[in-house]
Structure formats: C-alpha cells, structure tokens
Write a structure and sequence with these properties.
The complex is a heterodimer of chains A (589) and B (702). Chain A is an alpha+beta fold. Chain A has helices at 3-35, 39-42, 70-83, 170-178, 183-211, 213-236, 292-304, 315-318, 343-358, 423-429, 537-545, 551-556, 569-588; strands at 47-53, 58-61, 94-97, 109-118, 121-131, 160-164, 167-168, 241-249, 260-269, 272-276, 321-324, 372-378, 388-394, 432-439, 455-461, 465-470, 491-495, 501-503, 507-513, 518-522, 562-563, 566-567. In chain A, strand 9 and strand 10 form a beta hairpin. In chain A, helix 1 crosses helix 6 (213-236) and helix 7 (292-304) runs parallel beside helix 9. Chain A is globular and about 80 Å long. Chain B contains 16 helices and 35 strands. Classes of the chains: A alpha+beta (589), B alpha+beta (702).
Chain lengths: 589, 702
C-alpha cells in the first residue's frame, strides 16, 4: 500500500473500529440495565461497561449510563492479571471481583471481566459493573452506612472465575448466593452483568474477525493517541497555573463532630494537568472512604468538565493527567477501611476540583450542589415476607455564573433524574405506597442565580421494615459562591402513628419503622451564585408563581415586593436598599 | 391491470410535498411541489390540483386520500402548542417539573446544562386527593365535593387543553375516569386527553407525558385536519382524509384528532412502510429501510413484512447513533416505528478537529448556503461536494437546471484534507466513507442492538442521497441484496398508499405465565379487538379485519419487558406454552444468556387492521433489455481499489425491466443517482426498481 493509501485506509477504518467499540460498550451497558433485577439499576441505569486491552489500557467506556464507576473496571484488570496467569485463561472464562483495595469500589459493586481472544491469547477484556441487590454485610442492600471496615460491608470477592470455559462455576455461584439477603435478585443481577460482557465480547470477536487482531490493535492505539492529542490541545487552551479548591464533608456518621476536608490543587502546565489531593484529611473510621479507583473516576470527571467533552473516553484521556493521592487519606484509604459511603467523598473531590478550575474558566463556575440521599429498606429478620430495596433522591444543583441550578437531579457526576425510579413500578414490586414526591419551596440557595430546589418524598411501608439512611450536605448544606447563599439542608425522619416526628441522623442504620408509619426524605437545595439582591425581580416573580420561592422569602431574602401578582418596582428598590444595609452591618459584625 | 378506485397519497416533508396518484387504471403518477411552511395545506392542495389536472382525473372519483405529516413533531419541537393544564394525584404535582432528565455523551460534562421545560406552565397543575395502590386496590376514593372543587379550580384557569393522569390508573382507571367525566361535563369545549384512554401502561411520568403531549398537539392537529378536509372538499374530493400514524398504519382523520399522539412520527413511518412495500415487490419480507436526505439519515427495519415497533420513543430525544435515550426529549409510549436517525445527509459538513481527525457533521450546510458546489455561498465542503468530486453526481443533471461547480467542491475539500496528506479525491472518498460509517451506526442500532442479524436482509435505499450510499452500506453489513425504488424521490408518499387502516389497543395484565388463565387472556384480547373493530368501522364498511397480537413479558424481578408475538384467536394452554418458549428464545437472543426464572405477563397489545384498497405498483413495459440503448456516456468515478475509473452512466428511464449489468456503473434517474460498485451486479425488476446483488466472492466491505 502506498503511504497515502495507508493514511486513507487508517483514517476510514479507524472511524469504523472506533464506532464499533463505542457501540459495543453502550450496548453492553444497556443490556445490563434492561436485564437486571434491582430497581435502582433498572430504573436508574446505574451501570458501567468498558473495553480494555490486555495491558490494562481503557479502550472504550459506556457514556450513557453511570460515569461514576468508569475508572474502576480499568483499575480492576491489573489485579485480575496479578492473580490469574493470562496464559491460563481460556475462551468462555468470566471473572468476578469487588475488592476495593484492588481496583473495586465496595463489596456491593460487583465487577465482571471477560477476556476476548485473538491468536489464542486474551487480546482484550470487556467488563461490566453494577451495585448488585445485596451481598451481605451489616446492613441490607449494600448500604452499611455505619460500617467501620470493609468486612462489615459484605463479602469481599478476589478475582475468581465465575464461568470456566463457558460453564458456570457452581461453587462460586453457591458462595455468592448464600452470602446474599436476596439470593434470587443477586443472581439475576450477576446474570445481567454476564449478559453485558457476553454481548460486548461477541461484538469484539466480530470486529477482530473482520479486520484482524493486529489491525484492530494498531487502530486502537491510534484512537488512544488521538484522544491524548486532543486532551493536550484542550488543556493548552486553559491558562497555565496552580488552582486550588476544597470541600468539607459534614460527618462520617461514626466519629461525632469530626468533619473531613478534601483539598485539591490542579496544576496546568503546557497541555498536562496534575491534580494533587495529598492535602486531604486522613481516612475515616466510618464508611465514607473513597477507594483509589473511585477517586480517579471523580478526578477525571471534573477535569473533563473543562475540556471538549466529545473527546472519546479512553486511556488517552488519562495520559496527560497525573493524580497525586496520599495513602491513608480519605480519598485513598488503607485496607480494610469501609468504602461503601464513598459517594459523599468522591463528590466532595469533584466539588473541590470544580471550585479550583472555576478560576481558570470563570464562565463555567458553579456553586455547590445537593448530593444523593440514599436509603435502603428491608424486612427485619424473622419477617414472613422477605424483601429489600435501595432507593435514592437527589438534591438541587448549584447555581451557575449565568443561570439557575436545575432542581433535584444528580446531573454532573451522578447521572440525571431519569436514574430515580418512577413510583408505579416501585409500588407494583414492593408492599408500600408513596404519598408525595415534590420540590421543596425555598430550599434552593438564594442568589442572583438561584440554586436548584431539593425534593421531598413521603413513603409508607405496608409492613414493618428496617431502614438505613445515608445522606450528606444536610448539616452543612451546599454553600453558595460570590455572595450567593447556601441551599437549605435536607433531612430524613419518620412520622409515627401518633403524629410525632422523629428526626434521623444523616447517616443512620437499623431504624425500625412500623407498617403504616411514614418515612420522610428531604434533600438539600443547591447553593446560590451572586447576591440575591441582584436577582432580576421578574425571575423572583416567576419563582413565586411556580412555588420555587415563597412570597415571604421573596420579600425578606430577595427584597422583591410583589403586589397583586406584579413587582412593585419602587417598593422593591427601597426594600433592597434596606436589606443591603442590614447585611453589610451583619458582615461587619 | 384491473381497474382500481383512484386514490391519493400526500406526504409533507420539510422542503418538498410529494403527491402520488394511483389512477383508475392502476397507473401511478407522482408530483413534487415545494412545501408551504406557513400552512402546509396550501402546498398539498396545489400539488393535488396539479396532479388531478395533469392526469385528467375527476376529483369526485377519488376514494381515499392518505396524508403523512410532521405537524405533530414540529408542534412539539418548536413549542407551538397551547399551554396544557395537568391534573394528577395529590402529592405528585411536581412530577412533570422534576421530569426524567438524562444527559448523553458530551452533554454529561456540561456544567451549564438546562432541563427541558414541560408544556404545562406554572399555575396550571392541579391535584386531587385520591389513590389506587400498586396492586390496584383503592386506598382513597376521590369524594364528590373535592371533584367539584377541582372542576371549579380548573375552570377558573380557563385552559385550552387538559391532560389527566392519576397514579396507578393503568391498574384501575375508575378514579381517573370519574374525574375526567366531571371535567368533561363542565368544560365541554376544552380539548382533553386522559391517560387510561391514551396508553394505560405503568410508569407515571411516561404515561403522564404521553398524555400531556397528546393534549399539546391535539387542538392544533384537530384544527389542521378539519381544515384540510374542508379544503380538499372544495377541490371536489369527497372522501374522508386519512393519516398515517407513527406505527405505519392509517387512521381516519377523525380518530387521529382524538388520538393525535399516535401521529408524532407520521412522516418517518411512511418511509419504512415504503421500504417494506418495495421489499414485497422483490419478494422479500425482511428489509432494512434507509432514507437519506439533505440533513439526516433514518434507518428502520421490516420483518415478516411488518415494521418493527418501539414503545420507547422520545420526541426530540438524543442518544448514541440515532437512538433516543430515556430521559431526553419527551417520552411517547404509544407505538412508533423503530427508527434511528443520525445527522448525516448531503449537507453534512466535513472538518478536521484538533486531534487531526477528519469528521463529518453534525453541522450541516442545509439548503442555504448549501454545499460549495451549489455556488450559493457555501464554503465548507459537504457530503454532496464529496459525491460530486467522486464523479457520482452529474454536474449538469440537478433539478432547476442548476450547474454544479466541481472545481469549487474540489478546492474546498482539498483545503480541509491537505493537512492530513490527502488530495481532493482521497479526501472526498474519506468523507463518503465516514458518513457511511455514521449511518451504519444507525442501522446497527435498529438491527444488531435489537438482536437482529442484518446479513439476510435486503436494504432499500431512498431519499435524495440514499441511492448514492446504499451499496456501500450493504457491503459494510455483508448484505448481499440492496434496492432503490423507481420512485426513490417520492418513496414516502408511495408508502402512505400501501398501508391498511389500523388501530392499537393495550392493557396492563399482571399474571405469571405458568399459571395464567388462557380463557381470561383470550377474553381480554377479544375485548381489545372488539374496541378496535368498532373504531375502524365506517360508512364505507368493508369487513376484512386482521389482528396482530403481542404480549409484554419479563422474568419475575425484572422491570423491562420483551415483546413476544401471540397467536390470534382463542388461546389454550398449548398456545401459552409456545408463547413461553418464544419468550425464552427471544430472551437469549436479546441478552446473550439463558435465565432460569419465572416468566411473567405484563401487558397485552393488539393491533387491529381493516384491509382496504391499496396502491399496487403496475408492471412496466419490457422493451430492449440490452443496456446499451440507455447508455448516456462515461464519466470518471471513484471506486476503492481502482481509484478514478471511466464509468458508464445509464439513463434509468430507458432501462427496461429485465436488464442486467455489472458494476462499476452509475444509474441516473430523474431525481437521484444509484452508485453501482464493481462488486455489485445490477438488475432492473418488473417495476423498474434497481436491484443490486453483491457478488458472493467480492470484497466484503471493511
């Protein structure tokens, strides 16, 4: 082939192969979601799929489902290759693992990896990951909010064969099944994970058959190089320098009164970026530690928010990125720390990096957001009808430099609102009724641009249940920036039969709720951006019309006087002047 | 040819309105007129008048007029509908506002993202205290005083349109129907959509939004169709107007006005139906539909002669390779022909990104300024420019006597690809191939991702640009047979004339497959079909009905269902057993793994069709089957492996049925050109369709 012909052929085939890889991982993640047996996977699309090469480089990653688990499949493969000789692998082998200190996240996030062969040797690995229904531990559904080590969070699985040469390894399956409170559900979920890797493996087999292994290898490397080039180009467009940000976590639920701060310094230097998290606080005794692979997913996510997001997600994205972590810190804990509650921490790391990089790109600055509030329900031991489920609701997103924050969604790192189950399938599957899912008036942090509202869900189980809650940013609600105020913190509580309300701690487990009592879950609003006294009075009027802001808050916080459904401009100016003086006095004090 | 009753197909597209007339002798006449966006009925009536005059057809003799329109989609995407008032169960008034927002691909990193605003403005959501449980039990019945208070509240807001969706009304519609009846009685002039009538399926947001969308497009659609009927009556046509619905059946206008959400993909469905019809002419029942125009390309699938249907459609949605992901756009749960649409068309622009990769689209030069070769001010090279440089398009053969500027196209491509070390022709080929790859992604979504092996299918390519790319796409999937219909430029309008009158009914049905009572199932299906037949009967009553049943099934514990075909007629335990077996097989096909679980039935769907007179393409006269008589001359055209080669160009109009020839060749039709690569053999079938056969030993694509 002439040189030009080679260029042309590479250019075209590279696109063909790149698309095929992207389609294959997307398809694998969709297959996992659609065939799974856990509500928050089915409704929440909380799944990840990836293709890696035999040296452990990320080749492609699913982008439509969870981004939170992205780096974990990449981090797990080296551990598999450490324990199992690659030459001992045969077609049809499927491996399973979850060890958080060897690339995993926590016990309930199960990873499945399957080698794809070329020339009689594994050339690629395809992987899938979801939070399965339950894998033991001190609390149901993998929500051991108060666990103090990894063993309390469920069965730790080293890299082992789940299928050997295409046949289920029944010993391992039996072991997994016996360690679950929901054996049928967990085996259904594992089956979904295997469906995902099988589908992706089939596509990869076809691709190798069509183009030949060497050609696919060559084109994959050019894809990685391409992503790296574009990543560096994009980083070059950011001003070089050191940017710092931090975010404080209110509590781990175990050590009373101790907060944890994630501190990030991002150094941009001629097309490369170093994210240094070594100044972050020590690891926690509770479960909020973020394993290194989980932290890495967060770092990469935050960095990608400041570059062209269409760059393909593969190992090329990691090449210009150096991440510095301190072993023993909350973002890189030592074994056997508990890691199940790490969402709190990795999302704090994301906020810290967003805060840092906002200085490089002020137009993309964003106030802090409410986070995910997770709760699990299970019938207590001895109950006749055994069932369990895990659910969640999101807080509001922080206001941006030029727009309000969206309401109650896990957009950004966590996935959008479509990850929250709809009520009807939930009620069809479990003995419960949901009385309300609504936005919380006045919960969004006031500002020139307002934080998104938090939500409130009221749920009544028809049977006695044991509940675990794991929320955050409730005691220390998401702060505002540039004079914007904090959002209002969420809470969780139970309304007893006599009408009394008992508040829970943000992280609490073993809460017994009687049939017919009502559980209330409220999430936090996002922080505001800029002074509320500068908010366009017409926007405040609209806020009042759609119950985002109460008439009282319009007057007292925003200084907007509404008379007969319209803004009274003169009265508003006077009120705002009055409030400005009062606030200046407050600051002076 | 036997005598037929004359009828019309009228397809309104973004740029052109296509008219097809099947006359009393069964001859087919076509007409293309410019679409009149301000009121598409103007263009439609002009085209109808012209085609009637041209053929000397008596308007009163027309017995059917089938219309395809993108009106409903446009109303939604351009937000032209009226504000909708929304009534729901107390506690759920935030449902639409909270929505199901999801983001895909690059959007996931967008810190400045905005969520879509539902068509229900603040202050127009109303709640009623009532509740049905997840198992269908009454937790709280609405009381009459509260209903009266609700009615007063809604009336005070004076809405134009109203949507009612109460929680779990798919399990028991009693409360919802009571509330709706009270509202209807008090507000007889308000357009109203009720979720248990529209599509009674679980998932409150999806059902509510389907209902809201129905209420949003309803008043406009009803008005439009009434007006259209009046206008064609003025032309002397007395038959009722019919409209293609999203799943490819045809609805009478009166029913479509009541069920407007069924028409969201009216225009798109017609193309897939057309491809299926072309397949039937070729004796093929497994067809991939590939429709490529100026800005987008659409792929769909026909199996066993019927289009694949999805219940997971999102108007204005986004996703990978033309799929639409849940949480993007607005969900429409009613049946829609399963299609993937990508931003790949003749106008798609080629560029080089910062990583040094050549990319095509998503931006498009559209019709203004258009491709560089049009000489209307376009400076960025497009797919059409590439096809011109490759010799596929005749510089002088475009409509309007427009002369294409090959040199300008060549220069523009060269400017873009020079940094990659390519010349204009190689660059043009790269552009051609990249856009092909992008479209292959869309075909992949509707075939491979749905567990369908495309290799045994016939691919039918149409639209202005489809015939240029269809052979190459076929090779990509190792598909051995491709076709371009004689009427490629007006294929969708032909499709309108080939479908039966159809209605869809569904109901939720919860049972374990192992213990389900076959009699109860049969009775439920019968009831759905009885309703369907009632909807389809009219004064022109014919009595031939066909029924197509499917069931939603899944394993206990799962939330997503697979659609499994069920036999019509009474069901017994034997039929149930074979349905169970079919489910299991489909599960393995879809998920690549067998599962040892308990199959459940979730829902029953029934499609009832009334067989009506349809277009039947007449056989063309066989003349001289030697292609030499149609040889227009040669021009250089690019084929991989050979580069620019002197390629014979044939005049499609003069190619007789029965002609066979081998590639490389170009077949030039009135409004499109078919590219025939070297590895393909071409035949002209009895209907003048171009049929391409991939030689078995040829290069099987990349």
């Amino acid at each position: 082939m002439t040189e030009t012909a080679q260029v042309l052929d590479d250019l075209i085939t590279s696109e063909v192969v790149g698309n095929a890889l992207a389609v294959a991982v997307e398809e694998a993640s969709v297959v996992v979601v659609r065939s799974s047996h856990s509500t928050f996977i089915q409704e929440g699309a909380d799944a990840c799929a990836a293709i890696l090469d035999a040296s452990g480089q990320l080749v492609a990653q699913s982008m439509a489902t969870s981004l939170m688990h992205g780096s974990s499949l990449r981090s797990c493969l080296p551990s598999l290759l450490e324990d199992v000789d690659i030459d001992d692998m045969v077609p049809g082998d499927v491996f399973v693992m979850n060890d958080p200190f060897r690339g995993g996240i926590h016990a309930n996030d199960l990873v499945v990896l399957r080698p794809v062969f070329a020339n009689d040797r594994p050339a690629f690995f395809v992987g899938t990951l979801i939070h399965v229904a339950d894998l033991g531990g001190v609390a149901a559904a993998g929500l051991a909010a108060l666990a103090t080590d990894t063993f309390g969070e469920g069965m730790v699985v080293p890299p082992v064969r789940l299928y050997a040469g295409g046949a289920l390894v029944t010993d391992i399956a039996a072991m997994l099944r016996r360690n679950s409170r929901a054996p049928d559900q967990v085996m259904g979920d594992i089956s979904a994970l295997v469906s995902g890797v099988n589908v992706a493996a089939k596509r990869l087999d076809e691709l190798i058959e069509t183009h030949g292994a060497d050609r696919v290898d060559h084109l994959v490397e050019s894809q990685l190089a391409y992503a790296e080039t574009r990543m560096r180009e994009e980083l070059r467009s950011l001003p070089d320098g050191d940017y710092s940000g931090e975010f404080t976590i209110e509590s781990d639920g175990v050590e009373e009164g101790r907060t944890f701060t994630v501190r990030a310094t991002a150094t941009i230097d001629d097309g490369s970026i170093t994210v240094d998290l070594t100044a972050t606080d020590d690891q926690s005794r509770g479960a909020i530690n973020s394993s290194y692979s989980q932290t890495l997913s967060g770092v990469l996510y935050a960095v990608r928010c400041y570059i062209d997001p269409t760059i393909p997600m593969n190992d090329g994205c990691f090449r210009p990125l150096e991440v510095k972590l301190r072993h023993g810190s909350i973002v890189h804990p030592t074994s056997p720390a508990a890691c199940g509650g790490r969402v709190v921490t990795v999302f704090a790391a994301v906020e810290a990096i967003l805060a840092a990089l906002s200085a490089a790109r002020p137009e993309r600055s964003v106030a802090s957001s409410g986070t995910v509030h997770v709760f699990a329900m299970a019938t207590p031991a001895g109950a006749e009808n055994r069932w369990l489920t895990m659910l969640y609701e999101f807080g509001g997103i922080g206001a941006r430099a030029s727009s309000d924050g969206p309401d109650a969604t896990g957009a950004f790192f966590l996935g959008g609102r479509s990850t929250i189950p709809q009520i009807e399938p939930l009620e069809a599957q479990y003995p419960l009724v949901v009385h309300e899912v609504s936005v919380r008036t006045d919960s969004g942090g006031p500002g020139k641009y307002r934080g998104g509202l938090g939500s409130q869900m009221i749920l009544e189980p028809f049977e006695d249940v044991e509940v675990t809650v794991r929320g955050d940013r409730m005691i220390l609600p998401p702060p505002g920036v540039d004079g914007g105020l904090s959002g209002v913190g969420g809470f969780s509580a139970v309304e007893h039969h006599d009408g009394t309300i008992e508040m829970h701690k943000p992280k609490q487990s073993g809460i017994l709720v009687k049939a017919g009592e009502k559980l209330i879950f409220s999430t936090s609003g996002g922080g505001g951006h800029g002074s509320p006294l500068e908010r366009d009075p017409r926007a405040v009027l609209d806020d009042v019309a759609d119950n985002s802001v109460s008439p009282e808050a319009a007057n007292d916080v925003y200084g907007v006087v509404i008379t007969d459904g319209a803004v009274d401009t003169a009265a508003t100016e006077a009120r705002r002047a009055e409030l400005a003086v009062a606030r200046a006095a407050e600051v002076a004090r | 040819m036997t005598t037929s009753t004359p009828f019309l197909g009228v397809d309104v597209g973004g740029t052109f309105t296509d008219i097809v007339l099947s006359d009393a002798d069964g001859r087919v006449h076509t007409r293309k007129v410019l679409t009149t966006p301000a009121d598409p009925r103007d263009g439609s009536c002009r085209g109808i008048t012209e085609v009637l005059a041209e053929t000397g057809t008596d308007p009163t003799s027309i017995t059917r007029l089938v219309h395809g329109t993108t009106l409903a989609t446009n109303v939604i995407l351009e937000r032209k509908g009226p504000p909708v008032a929304f009534v729901t169960t107390a506690g759920f008034g935030s449902m639409l506002r909270l929505g199901r927002e999801a983001r895909v691909e690059g959007d996931r990193y967008d810190l400045l993202f905005r969520t879509a605003t539902p068509p229900v403005p603040p202050g127009l959501t109303f709640e009623i205290a009532e509740r049905i449980s997840g198992t269908g039990a009454v937790i709280e019945a609405p009381d009459d005083d509260q209903i009266a208070a609700l009615v007063a509240e809604v009336a005070a807001a004076d809405p134009v349109s109203l949507a009612v969706c109460l929680i779990n009304s798919h399990r028991d519609p009693t409360h919802e129907q009571r509330v709706a009846a009270a509202l209807r009685a008090a507000l007889p002039h308000v357009y109203m959509a009720v979720s248990s009538d529209v599509w009674p399926e679980a998932r409150e947001y999806d059902r509510a939004m389907t209902t809201v969308i129905s209420a949003y497009v309803g008043p406009i659609m009803a008005d439009y169709l009434r007006g259209l009927e009046a206008r064609i009556h003025e032309l002397g046509i007395s038959c009722p107007v019919e409209i293609m619905e999203s799943s490819g059946g045809v609805l009478r206008a009166e029913l479509a006005a009541q069920r407007p959400v069924y028409t969201v993909e009216s225009g798109g469905a017609a193309g897939v139906i057309a491809a299926g019809y072309v397949g039937s002419l070729l004796g093929e029942s497994e067809v991939i539909s590939f429709d490529m125009g100026g800005t987008t390309a659409k792929a769909g699938v026909v199996r066993d002669g019927k289009p694949d249907i999805t219940h997971d459609f999102h108007v204005g949605g986004k996703g990978s390779f033309g799929s639409t992901r849940s949480g993007t756009g607005f969900p429409v749960k009613t049946p829609v022909v399963d299609m993937a649409e990508v931003g790949a068309g003749g106008g798609s622009i080629a560029w080089v990104d910062t990583g040094g990769a050549l990319r095509v689209g998503p931006s498009s030069a559209g019709s203004t300024p258009g491709p560089v070769c049009y000489g209307r001010g376009g400076t960025e090279p497009t797919v059409t420019d590439a096809n011109l440089v490759l010799g596929y398009l005749d510089p002088g053969a475009l409509a309007d006597g427009l002369q294409l500027d090959t040199q300008a196209a060549r220069d523009a491509i060269e400017r873009v690809v020079a940094p990659l070390g390519l010349d204009a022709v190689d660059g043009a080929w790269a552009i051609h191939e990249l856009v092909t790859t992008n479209m292959a992604g869309a075909i992949h979504v509707v075939t491979v991702q749905r567990g369908i092996d495309p290799r045994s299918f016939t691919i039918v390519g149409f639209g202005g640009a489809g015939p240029l790319h269809v052979a190459r796409l076929a090779s990509t999937f190792r598909i051995t047979k491709a076709a371009v219909p004689w009427s490629a430029g007006v294929a969708s309008a032909v499709g309108l004339c080939t479908a039966d009158l159809t209605v869809h009914q569904m109901q939720a049905f919860a049972a374990d497959a192992a213990t389900a009572d076959p009699e109860e199932l049969s009775a439920a299906f019968e009831q759905l079909e009885e309703q369907g037949r009632r909807d389809l009967v009219d004064e022109r009553n014919a009595s031939d009905f066909t029924v197509n049943r499917t069931m939603g099934m899944r394993y206990r514990g799962q939330a997503y269902q697979l659609t499994v075909a069920a036999p019509s007629g009474p069901l017994g335990s034997e039929e149930l057993a074979s349905i169970g077996k079919a489910f299991r097989e489909q599960y393995v096909r879809t998920y690549g793994i067998d599962f040892d679980g308990e199959p459940q039935i979730v829902s029953l769907h029934s499609q009832v069709s009334r067989v009506v007179d349809k277009l039947s393409m007449p056989l063309a006269e066989v003349t001289d089957t030697d292609p030499a008589g149609a040889h227009l001359g040669n021009r250089p055209a690019y084929f991989p492996g050979s580069g620019m080669v002197d390629t014979p160009v044939y005049d499609w109009v003069r190619l007789s049925p029965g002609t066979a020839l081998s590639g490389p060749a170009l077949v030039q039709g009135p409004d499109t050109t078919v590219v025939v690569p070297a590895e393909h053999r071409l035949t002209i079938d009895g209907y003048r369709n171009v049929v391409l056969h991939l030689e078995a030993d040829a290069d099987q694509g990349r």
